[in-house]
User: What shape does this take?
Amino acid sequence: MSGRSSEVRRLDALVVGAGFAGLYSLHKLRQMGLCVQVLEAGSDIGGTWFWNRYPGARCDVESLEYSYSFSEELQQEWVWPERFAAQADILRYINHVADRFGLRPFIRTDTRVVSAVFDKVACLWTVESARGEVFKAPFCIMATGNLSLPRVPDLPGLETFRGNWYHSGLWPKDGVDFSGRRVGIIGTGSSGIQMIPVIAAQAKHLHIFQRTANFSAPAVNRPLTPEVDRRHKERYAYWRDQAKQTSFGISGHPPPTKSALDATPAERNRDYETKWDTGGNISFLYAYNDLLVNAEANETASEFVRTKIRSIVHDPKVAELLQPRDHPIGTKRLCLDTGYFETFNRDNVTLVDIKSDPIVVVTPTGLRTKAREFELDDIAFTTGFDAITGALFDIDIRVEGGSRLCDKWANGPRTYLGLMTAGFRNLFMITGPQSPSVKSNMVASIEQHVDWIAGCLQHMRDQCAVQIDADEAAENKWVDHVGRVADATLYPRANSWYVGANIPGKPRVFTPYVAGLDKYRQICDGVAADNYRGFILSKAPVDQTQSRQA
Ligand code: FAD
Ligand code: NAP
Assistant: This one.
């Protein structure tokens, strides 16, 4: 079927997106005997790991954790080559999963969804693609990703640039050879920090345009030895179970019990050194129990990293510029790198501070800041994403004759448990706003959400219910709770994409639920056990509701 506007497919459920979330949704719902179609904008599956092929791309959660747990055979048989898997290996894994579980026939690639409209009377979502294909199903699951709408800044003159430009989240499939080229990278978040050392080793000259200095810790990536692999797999079920009892969904890091302020400076230094040498961001932020809630405690860890930067970077002026001072460590995602700060000691690398000297225009031959002109052959944007709500707003989601999602969320997202939003019946979100999502091992969060939704659909089947909606009162309570939890932490202090600060005009709302995946799982399980408290189930399409208040 391709490009035929009149064609209509009737299904039990539609899933938008074929990343980790869409694929597991498909597998799970098919196991329940449902007829499911996945629609994917990309030319192949993989989501994040299909799109983000930039040099140095890899995960920052250890491979043995950042993988599906739903199949013991899968997790036993798959062998990860490195502690932190590279993009190509994760994509290989996702493709293996799709083949192994026979998912491909139910995935339609090159199919960008542009609208999703709910007909209350017929109890059907009608989903339309950019090519005019129409699909209908009573349930629609948005597995569209939190970091899937790349953001290229509105820089005047970009269209006049005679060189090549790229975005980390839209990287060419065949890669890019920067040998002998004068390259500019704009952005120093996780993507930039991973990419910079690799491109610096290749390019003739690399200019790094930094607006805000960022914290980064060494990944300490290494090959995963057969011994480590064997030991983990001997007790894989145990480690997965342990992970479920942690706030980040990652095992092997017992929660700290001590405040940074109860340690002496010497003890703190020793502990931070150990964590620094161990690698991994969870490890570092788990040095003490108050690094993300107490500014004074946080400052001890922030200053430790600044001292590291000063010790690594030879030029004191460059070292000064690289030291973050505008946000507490961890309140933006703590980047993991392999030789990032060391890269600034190379002769072919120049740091440009665009906070004091902003970019004014892209020219045919490079770009101009207020004070200087730069000649460039290539520009790589690592400027991030319209995160969390971006991909959802990119689809015209609405109820026929009623509300639009973008209107309802004009002042910030409103959801119940990050799973549904009141008024939009039978529409589920995987790792939606106000769920732990990006503040956890996302594969663990995805599995938790999909399992919960599958359980909910089974419950509806058992009850002969055809519609489900979030109760508005329950939603209001949840939104307040998410905000209160965030306000008790340091997170809202940073101008991060968690609060939408990277997108001009986006309302400043801290969106992820940061009480932890463990607590969140208990809440969701409790809601289900209490007959889906806070959701409204109905046996008939229109408003003969059986309501349960939160
Ligand atoms: P995605 O993988 O983003 O998939 C969503 C899919 O939906 C995409 O393929 C997209 O094309 C499709 N889609 C969106 N809109 C439409 C539409 N309108 N029509 C059709 N299709 C659509 N998380 C971690 O926990 N650990 C990590 O180490 C980690 N590293 C990351 C590194 C990078 C570079 C990035 C960008 C993110 C990283 N993340 C990490 C977060 C990562 O996004 C998740 O871990 C996970 O891959 C999300 O899977 P998903 O299926 O929910 O979303
Ligand atoms: P990001 O964290 O949002 O970083 C974007 C960078 O671009 C920031 O340095 C930002 O500066 C800069 N920037 C944005 N707009 C700009 C503009 N108009 N002019 C100049 N500079 C601009 O994006 P990202 O690095 O792609 O990472 C996004 C998220 O994806 C991460 O937080 C993480 O969750 C995930 N990720 C993970 C990994 C990993 O290690 N596994 C790798 C990549 C991505 P300001 O800070 O001043 O806004």
About this structure: The chain has 17 helices and 23 strands.
